[in-house]
Amino acid sequence: MQYPQQICILGATGSIGTSTLDVISRHPDKFKVFALSGMNQLTKLAEQIRTFVPNYAVVKDAAAVKELKQILGASIGKTTLLHSKQGLIDIASASEVDCVMSAIVGAAGLLPTLAAVTSGKRILLANKEALVMSGELFINAVNKHKAQLIPIDSEHNAIFQCLPSDFIYGDKQASGISHLLLTGSGGPFRELPLAQFSHVTPAQACAHPNWSMGQKISIDSASMMNKGLEFIEAKWLFGFNEDDIEVVIHPQSTIHSMVQYVDGSVIAQMGNPDMRTPIAHGLAYPNRIESGVGPLNFAQLSNLSFSTPCKKRFPNLFLAIQASKSGQAATTTLNAANEVAVDAFLQGKVNFSQINTVNDMTLQKQNTSSLTCIDSIIEHDASSRILAHQIIKELV
Ligand SMILES: NC(=O)C1=CN([C@@H]2O[C@H](COP(=O)(O)OP(=O)(O)OC[C@H]3O[C@@H](n4cnc5c(N)ncnc54)[C@H](OP(=O)(O)O)[C@@H]3O)[C@@H](O)[C@H]2O)C=CC1
Ligand SMILES: CC(=O)[C@@H](O)[C@H](O)COP(=O)(O)O
Ligand SMILES: [Mn+2]
């Protein structure tokens, strides 16, 4: 690895983006911020521009460029402001960039992340939805363009750390691996009586017991759709079959995931629940750098517990596993339906239990045509969203 690395952060104003800048700020000799992007939080983006002085910053549209210019005034410095999808694609594929942090939430992250892939960058992948939407196509592009894909999602980064360094994609036999153990906390409703699920508020659903994250992933954690998306993400990142991935509920989020080997050994990655650890690991890989996360205090770890997820409580997890077995069209459909349903829940249009109803019904109504190119994936995503909106209209 040649320092300094020029870094592009897609989704800089979000939870992962902010943690990434925190790690980078600890290592000014190693990382330079080349480009940042934000969507609605322009004041926060302006503050980041003043602090990190990137070459480029990308916002939603021309009106946002104008507003950001006004906020920045003379402190705009050398930063050029771009906008729209094309602006994101331009910064993700710029020749000066070594490494792209993919931290936009949802389907909006797909095209800029793919632009980084086809430009052969090192990609730090937090945006799991991109991989859920485009699985095989995404991995084929990584291989074709010799991009380097490093998982940032805490579970997948943990598995990446627990696999042998010479692990060959999809070849569990050669490495003596039995299966992957994907841990999930069970979220804020792990013990809530089932009858109360349809009455929970967005604030309650967003109150994750262990992690501080953006709204969408927090709701997904509460329904365990997050673990369903992560199941599909693990399949594509490591080349495993559905039968080789087991989801384990671990409420403390101290073990971030594990690899079970055929000789009975289990290798786990542990740490305090703070995304700066996987982010620092990805930024410096294969080296290690200080992240700002303190050491685990084992004397205070009174209890590490584990259990099996329940289908009645977390139907979204099982829907996602089923979709994974069905194939690409099903996982693209599920991702789109879930984004629409979570948004509707946040707006008070559907209740928490109806997120699963919308996901299930959209999967039943949508076709399962084969999706072999990016245009067909984008089209399928769009038509699934239309179906999900129709289903919501009929529900309310
Ligand atoms: N937070 C976490 O700890 C973890 C997150 N992840 C994954 O990382 C990704 C980001 O999550 P998180 O940081 O929590 O999310 P946040 O909601 O906190 O941040 C999302 C970022 O994306 C920007 N954004 C939102 N919508 C769009 C859009 N349509 N076009 C362009 N930019 C957009 C936001 O801009 P703005 O805020 O300015 O509106 C913000 O910068 C998700 O895919 C999530 O699943 C994975 C593991 C852990
Ligand atoms: C930090 C991270 O990676 C999240 O995806 C986290 O795992 C969410 O917690 P759950 O395990 O409750 O989904
Ligand atoms: Mn995760």
TrEMBL record:
The keyword Isomerase applies. InterPro entries: DXP_reductoisomerase, DXP_reductoisomerase_C, DXP_reductoisomerase_N, DXPR_C, DXPR_C_sf, NAD(P)-bd_dom_sf. Its EC number is 1.1.1.267. One of its GO terms (biological process) is isopentenyl diphosphate biosynthetic process, methylerythritol 4-phosphate pathway involved in terpenoid biosynthetic process. Gene3D superfamilies: 1.10.1740.10, NAD(P)-binding Rossmann-like Domain (3.40.50.720). Residues 7-135 form the 1-deoxy-D-xylulose 5-phosphate reductoisomerase N-terminal domain. NADPH binds at residues 13-16, 127, 129, 214. Residues 270-385 form the DXP reductoisomerase C-terminal domain. Mn(2+) binds at residues 153, 155, 230. Residues 149-238 form the 1-deoxy-D-xylulose 5-phosphate reductoisomerase C-terminal domain. It catalyses: 2-C-methyl-D-erythritol 4-phosphate + NADP(+) = 1-deoxy-D-xylulose 5-phosphate + NADPH + H(+). Pathway: Isoprenoid biosynthesis; isopentenyl diphosphate biosynthesis via DXP pathway; isopentenyl diphosphate from 1-deoxy-D-xylulose 5-phosphate: step 1/6. The keyword Manganese applies. Keywords: Isomerase, Isoprene biosynthesis, Magnesium, Manganese, Metal-binding, NADP, Oxidoreductase. Its cofactor is Mg(2+); Mn(2+). It holds the Pfam family DXPR_C. GO terms for molecular function: 1-deoxy-D-xylulose-5-phosphate reductoisomerase activity; isomerase activity; manganese ion binding; NADPH binding. It is an enzyme of class 1 (oxidoreductase). 1-deoxy-D-xylulose 5-phosphate binds at residues 128, 154-155, 185, 208, 221, 226-227, 230. Belongs to the DXR family. Catalyzes the NADPH-dependent rearrangement and reduction of 1-deoxy-D-xylulose-5-phosphate (DXP) to 2-C-methyl-D-erythritol 4-phosphate (MEP). This is 1-deoxy-D-xylulose 5-phosphate reductoisomerase. It comes from Glaciecola punicea ACAM 611. The lineage of its organism: Bacteria, Pseudomonadati, Pseudomonadota, Gammaproteobacteria, Alteromonadales. The gene is dxr.
